[in-house]
Request: fold
Amino acid sequence: MVTAIVFVKAEVARIPEVAEEIAALNGVSEVYSVTGTIDLIAMIRVSNHDQVAEIVADRLNKVPGVVSTETHIAFRAYSAHDLEAAFSLGG
Reply:
């Protein structure tokens, strides 16, 4: 499983529509509207890197209202659930 985090800058007047269109793309698991220098964060979860390239370059970047993107590939995931399992001694 490959997880990519995509920072999206969008036309301000179209942020809700852009978010909905991105969220509807196959491979996009969720989209967050955020504060700061970017407008949206899209989470992509797919089986290989080629699919990330296809989603971002061929589809997400072509959504009307997307100004720019910055993609980050996750190496490892950490969560409270993962940490509990790591420190569990089976008891």
Summary: The radius of gyration is 15 Å.
